[in-house]
Structures are given as structure tokens and as C-alpha cells.
Amino acid sequence: MSDSILLTDTDASPVGDAVALLDGWRAEKRALRELASALGEPGVRALLLTTDDPSLLRSSVELAHARGVPVLVGCTDETGRRRAVELKAEEWFLLPATAEEISARIWSAVARGAGLGAAVAERVDRVEYEQMLHDSLTGLPTLPVAIERSRQLFKERGELVVLYFNFVRYSKIEEIYGWEKLDSVLETTASAVRDFLDDDELGASRVMVSFTNDDDFIFFHVPASGVAAATESEITEMVTRLQRHVGGQIEEAHGEDIAALFDIYVGRAHLYYNPKIRLERLIYRGIREAANASRSVEQRERARRVSDLRTSLRDRSVYVDYHPIVVASTREIFGYEALARGQLRTLRSPEVMFDVAAEADLIWELSRLCRARALEGMDTRLGPGQLLFLNVDPHDFADPAFNEKEVTDPSRVVIEITERTAIKDYPKFRERLKAFRNLGYRFAVDDAGSGYAGLGSIANLEPDFIKLDISLINAIDTNFIKQNLVQTMVRFAEDHNAMVIAEGVERAEEFKTVQELGVHLVQGFFLHRPQPASSPIVTVATA
Q: Could you tell me where the DSSP H helices lie in 178-223?
């Protein structure tokens, strides 16, 4: 009889010792990228994972479950435990663990994976019950739990302050980087908010709650006996400090670009206990009131940002980061993408800046300034033979001030079509591009695989470069569907004399994968962080 196989991503000695305690078992360590084929091999009974990368863990668990293989997860902390529960791993254990515990967990995982009928139904009921109590992503209690915890305090004190934390533009993070990145950002956010409130005066007599799998939080504050409820000015001051604290944590964990998308708007509702009104109904009304108040704050902030944008346009307060695009096989710099950013903190993120411009009908004015700033750095930033990748929205081609003679040397410029707006008339648009091509401009389709930039767009525009969306590259080393899509795109590009650019490469494993898939050019923080125009020419790390 053949051995039972435990697939694992670790060669830690306790795992080997644990398997030695299991009669007829052996452990096989495999790279996560090899799991697709390994999980289908005869004799595989279970998968043991210790990776703390949420994207890698999710894709591996889903793949194992699709093959009918039970999973156990070695967790380094409470966040890892919650993640294992959310992913419905059959078993989890905290590291470090003894060989005896691990072997027991392996048997338990196999038994759970083989459960049928009532056992499966019981497990489903338990998971559903746990999810009713706590959000598995953030670890925060759900709203019904928070209401029960606050019920008696609210009755005794007679008042309750509801704060609604509206984290704006988190949907942008998901849209740009994918849901895995937003999940990770939400975990960082929840942890940072909890840490802040634990040290704040409002930390006493409070309950924080999250809408399951949403990106807004609710905070209940019952003032302590003999202490007045927090005033509007005190809450405003607290929110300023909270924003600084959480923003710093997000920047440290996820980088400046994502931190620039972070903002909090807080709405407040002060409730007074009334025995005639059902307590739950009173609190839900308070939540709606606080949520509406947060949106009013957001509207005021939008008006302030429009004012900031007008000032920036007048003072030309936009700077450019030049982000290198390198040849995948040699890491030689092929060119630079010009990434415009506002000098004012409120407009640092280009996504925010252009959203504000769209609301204020200032897209053309902002696009002109960004192009001008980018072109100013061509002589100092570009070496011989290097290209400047310039972001242009289809809407800009209707701007009378934008024409093919805007650049003195078009052969050095690649126009990236960034489809913030859809192209409605492709024949007319192609005619417009033809005038640019005739002078030597080249074209790239940006964010291929996302939004409007689908296969139809690529076929209609016939680009020289196809830039793959960051959500397609994120965790590509463990996602075999993404690998197949990229491989297909590379073949398509080569058949049509185009080159594929993988953007958003942040990890060595992702870089190695896109190299192996034949991607021609690579861009991402793994190779180099963006540098402002005043910085000297950079070299790309080769380690």
C-alpha cells in the first residue's frame, strides 16, 4: 500500500517529526506554485500551509478544496487564525507547535475533510454562527453583538454616542489593486484603529463594530459615569489624530500610493434612551443619522479639494515621479512612465486628483499641466534610446490644445491610453491616433484586463504595448488562471508585433513568474520606487 502524503510549504523539523508519528505517512515540501499539479497526485491526503501572505494562502486553500484535499494552517498570530477560519481551513494551529499537536491536527483535518451529512451540516452551522458574531476579516464584532454589549450601559447612562467612520476611496484600492490588497488594507486599518482607541480617552466604555466584509466601521461610546459625552470639537480633534495614526500605519505596511487614497470622514449622532422606543430601532436610526452626517462632511471636503485643485492649476503645483520600465530578461531600463502627483497633501494621489478634476469639469486643464510637467523632464531623465510613457485619457483627444505637434520628438514618446472614460466611437478615435502614429508616436493600452481595457479595446487600438493590470499580476506566482491569461496575452502580443508590460510587480516571486511566462517588460516597486523629476538618473536593483 502506498504512503499517505502530506503536502507542505515548509521543511520545519516539527512537521517532519509529526508525520513520522503517523503510520504510513510521509511529507513532501513543494513550492506553492507547484501545488496545482501536486494536489492531483495519488496518495495526497492533506495540505499543511504556513505562509502568512493572504493572497497566497487564499488561492492555495481554494485550489486544495477544489481537489477535495483538506487543509490545515500554521498561524503566527491572531490575524492568521482569523484568516484561516475565514477561508474555512479544516484545521489551524498556532506556531510554534509540537510534533504531537501537529500530528493530531493532521488527523483532525483529514477527518473533517471526510465528514458527510450531519457532520458537514454541523460544521457549516458553526462557521455561519461565528460569522454572525464577528467579521472574520477584521475580527470586530458584528452589529447585533455590539448592540447587545451596549444595551445595559446605554440604559444605565441614558445616552449613547454613535460615530460612523466612513473610509472613502477604499473602493478605489479594490478597483486598482484587487480585492486581496483591500482585504489586507482593511486588516491594517482595523488593527490601527483599535490600537489608537485603546490609548484614547474614548477607549473606556466603547464598542467598535464592522459591517461584515465592508469597509466602514461604527463606534459606540457610552460616557463613563460622571463624565460628559465627547463634544463635537473633541471628536474632530480625535479624528485628526486618528487619521494621522492610521494613515501612517497604512503607509508603513502598504506604501505611499495606497496611503494617499486613505481618508476618514466621521459622522456623529447623540442618542438618548427612551423606554417607549425599541432600543435596536433607536440605535439603527442613530447609525443612519451618523452615516448621513459623515457624507455631509465628505461633501464639504470635496468642495475644499476643488478649491485646492484650482490653486494647484494656477500655481502649476504638480510634480512627476518617473517610474522605470525594465526589460524582463536583463533588467535594463527601457523607459519611464511619468506619474503625476499633486504637491498638496489632499491631491497627492493621482486617482484623487483626477476624480476631483472630473467633478469640477477641469479634466482638460489638469491633463495639460500633467503632460507639460512630464515632458519637462525628458532631457534630464531619459537616456539614449529610452522612451517616455505618457498617460492620456481618450477624453483628452477631444481637447483642442492636445495635438500631435505637442512634442518636439514624438519617436521618444509612448502614449498610454488610460481609459477613465470609455471610447464610444472607435473608427473616429483610430483616425485621431493615425495622425499621431504618422509622426512617430507609439501607443500602449493601460490596465489591460480591467475596466474598459478589455480584448475589444486592444483589438481596436492595435497598440505597440499592452500593459497588464496590477490586479492580474498580484500573486500571479500562485494563481494558475492568471498565469494562463498572461501567457495567452504574450502570445497574442507577439503575433501582432506588440510587447507586454507587467505593472505592479512587488515581489521576487511575481517577477520570476512573469519572466518565465515570457513577459517582455516589467514595472513595479520590486524593481524600484518612483523618484521625483529632481532626482538623478536611477539604476534598477539587480539583487
A: 179-198
Whole-prediction pTM: 0.61
Q: Which CATH class is domain 143-304?
A: alpha beta
By the 10 Å C-beta count (0-12 exposed, 13-18 middle, 19+ buried), 338 is classed as buried
Name every residue whose Cβ is closer than 8 Å to that of residue 484 and which is 6 or more positions away in sequence: none
- What sign has the CA pseudo-torsion 469, 474, 480, 486? positive
pLDDT at 241 over 90: no
Q: Which residues pair with 49 in a beta bridge?
A: 73
Beta strands in 104-183 (DSSP E): 159-168
Instruction: For the chain, give every residue range classified as CATH 3.30.70.270.
Output: 143-304
At the topology level, CATH places domain 4-133 in Rossmann fold (3.40.50)
Provide CATH code, domain 316-532. 3.20.20.450
Cell numbers placing 287: 447609525
Mean per-residue pLDDT of the chain: 82
Spatial CA neighbour of 103 closest among 13, 17, 45, 39: 17
Q: What is the pLDDT of residues 489-503, one digit of tens each?
A: 999 999 989 999 999
For the stretch 244-283, pLDDT in tens is 898 899 988 888 878 888 888 888 899 999 989 999 999 9
Distance CA 194, CA 6 (A): 38
Q: Could you give phi then psi for residue 317, rounded to 5 degrees?
A: -85, 60
C-alpha cell at 5: 502524503
Residue intervals in the chain for CATH 3.20.20.450: 316-532
**If pLDDT is split at 50, 70 and 90, which confidence band does 134 have?**
low
Closest to 45 measured CA to CA, from 72, 80, 10, 14:
72
Which among 500, 475, 480 has a CA at the least distance from the CA of 490? 500
